[in-house]
Design goal:
Blueprint (H helix, E strand, L loop, with lengths): L2 H5 L2 H6 L20 H7 L4 H4 L3 H15 L4 E2 L6 H5 L4 E4 L3 E4 L6 H5 L10 H14 L4 E6 L1 H10 L7 H9 L1 H25 L3 E5 L8 H18 L7 E4 L7 H6 L4 E3 L6 H7 L4 E6 L8 H15 L5 E5 L9 H15 L2
Parallel strand pairs: 1-4, 4-5, 5-6, 6-7, 7-8, 8-9
Antiparallel strand pairs: 2-3
Helix pairs in contact: 5-8, 8-11, 9-10, 9-11, 10-11, 11-12, 15-16
Subcellular location: Cytoplasm, Cytosol
Catalytic activity: uroporphyrinogen III + 4 H(+) = coproporphyrinogen III + 4 CO2
Family: Belongs to the uroporphyrinogen decarboxylase family.
């Protein structure tokens, strides 16, 4: 399969705002816990070990593509992988998420963070290369965490509901905050470049928790750093997707920092989102809990999201956030069938 075939895939065409024979669909967190074959493969392997093992990365990335027939693969990794690769003491605890041994809250902590080089992550280059060959005309999405979302784990030491320590650093020591986000922007851009250079066809920058910020704080403390990442990875033919949860009030700003496609959660209709992001394509936004609803409700909601997506310059169907671990894999397969059937032109 040639590169040209990939560039004409429905997913990449929709990212560019071009006509597609049907609306492309993939799911955030499709590669992971909802699949029994994933659980079987991961049984005795810690998460970060799996993320450093090319054969496991390749297999876990392929599982949802084979099973559901989605229009894009997302590279199996985690947003903390590049942090661990530059020596941050971070682990992923099952059922909790990333936990950081020594939280960063002062300039000395920031200065201990170094940039990432391709030699730090040979397993990423190797796995992306293998996947590009295996995927044929199906695009591969690389990804990374945005500076704010990464900083929230580093400052809090783990997941948080309020981001109180993160916001305290932002407001109380803005010089430390900007230095931290500057270093994280460098690491994130380097990590994305490794994936693009190895053959990733698109990248998604996850600023999952940015929705916790006011528009004013986002503009002052976060936007410049996300903009630095997105401008560093601008490459012809490689669209940049930018996504946050509960970020309806930030959608315009998240587009303006340099995204080609803006990801939207389920709280705001795509018709409204389309009015906020200008010419950019939209990705989203089925409520992930709809996958637990009766089939007729699921079908109705898929039709609604497709209809609302017509307001956008290009629409990639997705969930409004990641697949919940309890999700029945068959409901995901059914959703792909519905999206393809209801959107056939
Ligand atoms: C915030 C964030 C993280 N990681 C990620 C984000 C941004 C996306 C989002 O908003 O959901 C991104 C991520 N993490 C993972 C992927 C794989 C690709 C995919 O399927 O989308 C992606 C894209 C694998 C993973 N990352 C994680 C798992 C589960 C690990 C396991 O199987 O034990 C997987 C498959 C762990 C993780 N890592 C993180 C969390 C919150 C968790 C879940 C904690 C839990 O509930 O167990 C940090």
């Amino acid at each position: 399969m040639t590169t040209e075939d990939v560039s004409q895939s429905p997913f990449l065409r929709a990212c560019r705002g071009e006509e597609t024979p049907r609306t492309p669909v993939w799911f955030m967190r499709q590669a992971g816990r909802s699949l029994p074959e994933y659980r079987a493969l991961r049984a005795d392997t810690p998460m970060l070990t799996a993320c450093r093992t090319p054969d496991m990365i390749r297999e876990i990335t392929m599982q949802p593509v084979r099973r559901h027939g989605v229009d894009a693969a997302i590279f199996f990794s985690d947003i903390v992988v590049p942090l661990a690769a530059v020596g941050v003491d971070v682990d992923i605890v099952a059922g909790t998420g990333p936990v950081v041994g020594q939280p960063i809250r002062d300039m000395a902590g920031v200065e201990a963070l170094r940039d990432l080089t391709p030699e730090d992550v040979p397993y990423i280059t190797e796995a992306v290369g293998m996947l590009r060959e295996e995927l044929g005309a199906t695009p591969l999405i690389g990804f990374a965490g945005a500076p704010f979302t990464l900083a929230s784990y580093l400052v809090e030491g783990g997941p948080s509901r309020t981001y109180a320590k993160t916001k305290a650093l932002m407001h109380g020591a803005p010089d430390v905050w900007h230095a931290l986000c500057g270093r994280l922007a460098g690491i994130t851009a380097s990590f994305l470049k490794v994936q693009i250079d190895a053959g990733a066809n698109a990248v998604q920058l996850f600023d999952s928790w940015a929705g916790a910020l006011s528009a004013a704080d986002y503009g002052m403390f976060v936007a410049p750093h996300s903009a630095a990442v997105l401008s560093a990875v601008a490459r012809p033919g490689v669209p940049r997707i930018h996504f946050g949860v509960g970020a309806g009030h930030l959608l315009a700003a998240m587009g303006e920092v340099g995204a080609d496609v803006v990801g939207v959660d389920w709280r705001i209709p795509l018709t409204e989102a389309a009015g906020l992001v200008g010419d950019r394509a939209l990705q989203g936004n089925l409520d992930p809990t709809t996958l637990f609803a009766p089939e007729d409700v699921l079908a109705h909601e898929v039709r609604r999201v497709l209809a609302e997506g017509k307001a956008a310059k290009g629409h990639i169907f997705n969930l409004g956030h990641g697949v919940l671990p309890e999700t029945d894999a068959d409901a995901l397969t059914k959703t792909v069938e519905y999206v393809h059937r209801f959107s056939a032109r």
